[in-house]
């Protein structure tokens, strides 16, 4: 902070710009913004501001820049890697939460686009699109609370990447407030625009280090109205991989999800989240949810689902399978998949990892990472859940709360476990951060796994767009 500006001066200037109600400075009011939802990360904020318009965001940026105080943009605070809360070291930033910027500015079904403000909740965007017969396909467990700005800034993945791509593939344009307060209006809802460097991609996945996203033009797709879903127990991950290929050949782009979890992960959901049940008879080592969808012809979908699963059973790749008989059963099975994070939070200390490897290497990754973890802690519980269709596996070494508390140095155990898993991904030409982002958890890993030339390029971009380190200083690029 500049010597000339005190905390109180900045707060009163922010109050004058936004109104008193939009500036929270009391510790009890800011508590929900300075800690992550799992209680693993907590930091200090100078205050929390809740602007309602892009112009107000610009005002906040100018005031903070003049005062020499950094800004932490925040969405729904659902980050799984401590990305949305301040660090414990360094000067306290102003948290700029976008929750009040939640207007849907435009829906254009014919163009397959909608323009929404960054604070819109993902689920609201999905529902609004569905209301005009369109699909916004990004879908994930936190969709009831994460914001569009957060999903853009982390380039969120989720369960439909296999068919529709990551968030990046579903954005047409952005509006961003830059480090000097300039509002960049790049809200063009075009599918073709080759007029120079595509600037929006700089801000997508930048985790709030280059600017504050205030609105986005999103790409909508035809709304599938017919679905066919099966839950089955593959013999092992290699069999699941083979079955994925069979579905891709049989269904093409109608294959919309292929999610895998191991028995421990499945059991944790049943034990810790009410109203979740095992759709199969008996216990199985592995579970897969596969879904097909289309805009018409439900019978055709079910036929291809049944036939492909039947072939897999004949080949000895599947131990048991069930097909959802109606939309309620389908929703129930998705609930099992979406309950994983809630279950794990209640059950134990899970060291979440977020690796992606080529789809053809998923089974090898699971085997090798299991061996690597067990070489350090023999027999340790490991929950595995993954978007197998896109090669993203959350491989989660689990410690009971008591075992974790008894460790002489739990932080270094966490680092060792993550290194075991991430090193295997790196060896298989994979990544340590497929969809959650880098946040605080992944920051040290950037140095370990990214090439110096790549880090240098990122530093050049940061220096050009945010020369005074206003936005999330010290994040993303170590
Ligand atoms: C139950 C559960 C399930 C999840 N499942 C998935 C999953 O399947 N796939 C997946 O990818 N993620 C998943 N996540 C992680 C998380 O939901 C996503 O990363 C989400 O995109 C974060 O959105 P948010 O609004 O909560 O952002 P926050 O957590 O608030 O912020 C995340 C980052 O974005 C920055 N940021 C936020 N808003 C803006 C903005 N407007 N402008 C600039 N920077 C901004 C922040 O500074 C921070 O660096 C899950 C989380 C939970 C709790």
Automatic annotation (TrEMBL):
Pfam families, per the entry: FAD-oxidase_C (PF02913), FAD_binding_4 (PF01565)
Source taxon at top rank: Bacteria
Transmembrane segments: none
Any GO molecular function: FAD binding
PROSITE patterns tied to this protein: FAD_PCMH (PS51387)
Example of a GO biological process term: respiratory electron transport chain
Signal peptide: none
Keywords: FAD, Flavoprotein
FAD-binding PCMH-type domain: residues covered: 41-223
InterPro entries: FAD-bd_oxidored_4_C, FAD-bd_PCMH, FAD-bd_PCMH-like_sf, FAD-bd_PCMH_sub1, FAD-bd_PCMH_sub2, FAD-linked_Oxase-like_C, FAD-oxidored/transferase_4, Oxid_FAD_bind_N
Membership in a protein family: Belongs to the FAD-binding oxidoreductase/transferase type 4 family.
Protein name: 2-hydroxyacid dehydrogenase
Biological source species: Pandoraea eparura
């Amino acid at each position: 902070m500049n010597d000339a500006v005190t905390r109180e001066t900045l707060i009163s200037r922010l109050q004058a710009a936004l109104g008193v109600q939009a500036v929270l400075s009391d510790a009890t009011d800011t508590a929900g913004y300075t800690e992550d939802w799992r209680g693993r990360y907590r930091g200090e904020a100078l205050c929390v501001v809740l602007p309602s318009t892009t112009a107000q965001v610009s005002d906040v940026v100018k005031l903070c820049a003049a005062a020499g105080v950094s800004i932490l943009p925040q969405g729904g605070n659902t980050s799984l890697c401590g990305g949305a809360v301040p660090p414990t070291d360094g000067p306290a930033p102003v948290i700029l939460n976008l929750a009040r910027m939640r207007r849907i500015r435009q829906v254009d079904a014919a163009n397959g686009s909608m323009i929404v403000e960054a604070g819109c909740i993902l689920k609201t965007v999905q529902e609004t699109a569905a209301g005009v017969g369109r699909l916004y396909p990004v879908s994930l467990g936190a969709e009831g609370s994460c914001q569009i700005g957060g999903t853009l800034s982390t380039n969120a993945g989720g369960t439909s990447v296999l068919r529709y791509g990551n968030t990046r593939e579903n954005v047409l344009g952005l509006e961003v407030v830059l480090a000097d307060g300039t509002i960049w209006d790049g809200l063009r809802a075009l599918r073709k625009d080759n007029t120079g460097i595509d600037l929006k991609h700089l801000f997508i996945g930048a985790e709030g280090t280059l600017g504050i996203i205030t609105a986005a033009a999103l790409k909508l797709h035809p709304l599938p109205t017919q679905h066919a879903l099966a839950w089955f127990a593959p013999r092992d991950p290699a069999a699941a991989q083979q079955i994925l290929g069979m579905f891709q050949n049989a269904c093409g782009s109608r294959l919309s999800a292929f999610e895998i979890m191991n028995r421990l992960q499945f059991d944790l959901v049943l034990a810790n989240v009410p109203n979740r049940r095992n759709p199969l008879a008996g216990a199985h080592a592995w579970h897969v949810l596969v879904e097909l969808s289309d805009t018409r012809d439900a019978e055709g979908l079910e036929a291809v689902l049944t036939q492909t699963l039947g072939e897999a059973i004949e080949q000895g790749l599947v131990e048991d399978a069930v097909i959802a008989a109606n939309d309620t059963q389908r929703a129930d099975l998705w609930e099992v998949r979406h309950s994983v994070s809630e279950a794990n939070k209640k059950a134990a200390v899970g060291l979440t990892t977020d690796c992606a490897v080529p789809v053809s290497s998923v089974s090898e990754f699971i085997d090798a990472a299991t061996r690597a973890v067990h070489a350090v802690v023999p027999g340790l519980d490991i929950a595995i859940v993954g978007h197998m269709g896109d090669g993203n596996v959350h491989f989660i070494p689990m410690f009971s709360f008591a075992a974790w508390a008894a460790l002489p140095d739990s932080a270094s155990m966490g680092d060792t476990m993550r290194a075991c898993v991430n090193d295997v991904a790196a060896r298989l030409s994979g990544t340590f951060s497929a969809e959650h982002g880098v946040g605080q958890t992944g920051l040290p890993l950037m140095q370990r796994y990214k090439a110096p030339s790549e880090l240098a390029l990122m530093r050049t971009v940061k220096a050009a767009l945010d020369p005074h380190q206003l936005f999330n200083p010290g994040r993303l690029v170590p």
